[in-house]
Amino acid sequence: MIRIQGLRKFFGRQPVLRGVDLDVATGEIMIVIGRSGGGKSVLLKHMLGLLRPDAGAVVVDGTDITKLRGAALEAVRRRYGVVFQGGALFDSMSVFDNVAFPLREKTALGAGDIAQRVEEKLAQVGLVDMGHKNPAEISGGMRKRVAIARALVTEPEIVFFDEPTTGLDPILVNTIHHLIQDLHRTFRFTAVMVSHEIPEIFEIADRVAMLHEGVIIETGDARGIQNSTNPIVQQFIHGAVEGAHHVA
């Protein structure tokens, strides 16, 4: 579904992505891990078409989106759903209106169809009868659920999750992860998640890729990554203060 080839990005003279290669298979949950400030969110923004690379390609279902502009790029984005870091809900809107927002902006659905779709998505994330509340009136975990409902309300083929459990306690982290897993089993979207939740992400990932110093240093299933012989991978997943820090 997504193929990233030789992706490079500089900010000024600072290299952030130094030749990223990554394939995301149709229907899988791919989780990108790595140290804070290591370029994970920058990589995600390239997949979303929000940033243009200095070199390389982001190929979505056969189309290199780095070459698209305007309506052509927007047509690809209509296949996307995004759960932003922190949720990024509109504080001035109710829960219902937050979830309805993409439908009102991007589709020609009537009010009745929008209402039905929104209520269905709220029910699927466990928020029945919560549409009238404002984000400030619900818990952090509920706000994450609203963000997920909003991302799924357009029934996207590809869903991007940027640190979807930031700020939650360990129990809520696992609750949101299992919700994502359950929704994925139901709707079979392709998922790309950026996360630092170790070891929790290993329970839901089909595959894991580690981004380090601007390159993907290892990709594999959860067990393969956990058993990696790469000292940088082992240092990261065990949170070791001392050990290998740099790509040879």
Descriptive overview:
The protein is α/β, with parallel strands linked by helices. It contains eight helices and ten strands. The chain has helices at 40-47, 70-77, 95-106, 111-124, 140-152, 170-187, 222-226, 231-238, and strands spanning 2-11, 14-24, 29-33, 55-60, 63-64, 80-83, 158-162, 190-194, 207-212, 215-220. It has a six-stranded mixed sheet. Strands 2-1-4-5 form a four-stranded antiparallel sheet, with helices on one face. Helix 3 packs across helix 4 and helix 4 packs across helix 5 (140-152). The longest helix has 18 residues, at 170-187. The protein is globular and about 55 Å long.
The whole-angstrom Rg is 18 Å
Strand content: 15-25%
Spatial shape: globular
Distance from first to last alpha carbon: 31 Å
Instruction: Give the SSE string.
Output: EEEHEEHEHHHEHEEEHH
Mean pLDDT: 92
Helix content: 25-40%
Oligomer: single chain
Which stretches are low in confidence, meaning pLDDT under 50 for 5 or more residues running?
Answer: none
Tell me how many strands there are: 10
Key traits:
4-stranded antiparallel beta sheet, 10 strands, alpha/beta, 248 residues
Question: Helix and strand layout, with pairings?
Answer:
Layout (H helix, E strand, L loop, with lengths): L1 E10 L2 E11 L4 E5 L6 H8 L7 E6 L2 E2 L5 H8 L2 E4 L11 H12 L4 H14 L15 H13 L5 E5 L7 H18 L2 E5 L12 E6 L2 E6 L1 H5 L4 H8 L10
Parallel strand pairs: 3-8, 3-9, 6-7, 7-8
Antiparallel strand pairs: 1-2, 1-4, 4-5, 9-10
Helix pairs in contact: 3-4, 3-5, 4-5
